[in-house]
Amino acid sequence: MAVQKSRRTPATRGARRSHDKLKNPALSVDPTSGETHMRHRVTPDGFYRGVQVVAQPESVEDDE
Q1: Separation between Cα atoms, residue 53 and residue 56, nearest integer Å
Q2: 23/19 Cα distance (integer angstroms)
């Protein structure tokens, strides 16, 4: 079983943990729709780099 040789100081522990913090996601704005989205992802409107790559389903309206 592993047993530590000497106690780690709080400074050394903090230096090791300094890289564990979470980073904010990289966001981008689509030039056509102006939608904010994550980088390298399609916007909710279906645009990617200014080109519509996913067609939105047309809403069905019943006239009765």
Answers
A1: 10
A2: 10
* Residue that has been written with the tokens 């030039």 in this structure: 31
Query: Quick check: pTM over 0.85?
Result: no
- Judge contact between 20 and 13, C-beta under 8 A: no
Into how many domains does the chain fold? 1
Neighbours of 43 (CB within 10 A): 21
Question: Six-digit token pair at 12?
Answer: 């050394």
Q: Can you tell me the distance from the alpha carbon of 48 to that of 58, in angstroms, rounded to the nearest whole number?
A: 19
Residue 33 lies in a domain: yes
Residues 20-55 have pLDDT tens digits of 888 898 998 888 888 888 999 888 888 888 888 888
Within-domain flag for 45: yes
